[in-house]
Design brief:
single chain, 98 residues, mainly alpha, 3 helices, 66% helix
């Protein structure tokens, strides 16, 4: 990030990913998922999670005893993403004797 050209290109890619993810979160909210979630903040968090995971996965393997396949990595990220976005508030619990 000390090279201005590299940093600018990284911000461009990062911003593009955030924009796409925020758009998808808004679409999920239109279908009544993830109520109250701030799309911009959530997009930034998901982008950071994916970027760090990829960095760790590809270059820094901090868990050498774990060697999952690329398919397992993609499935894990999808499960995390899906649970982070595609949720709804639980139904209110009735306290009356119905």
């Amino acid at each position: 990030m000390i090279d201005p050209a590299f940093a600018a290109r990284w911000r461009e890619i990062h911003s593009s990913a955030n924009t796409l993810i925020a758009r998808d979160i808004r679409a999920a909210q239109a279908a009544d998922y993830c109520p109250g979630l701030d799309p911009e903040i959530a997009a930034s968090a998901l982008t950071a999670m994916i970027e760090q995971f990829c960095l760790t996965w590809q270059h820094q393997n901090d868990s050498p005893h774990i060697e999952p396949t690329d398919e397992a990595a993609v499935e894990t990220l999808w499960q995390l993403w899906g649970h982070a976005v595609y949720w709804t508030d639980p139904l209110p619990v009735s306290t009356s004797d119905e």
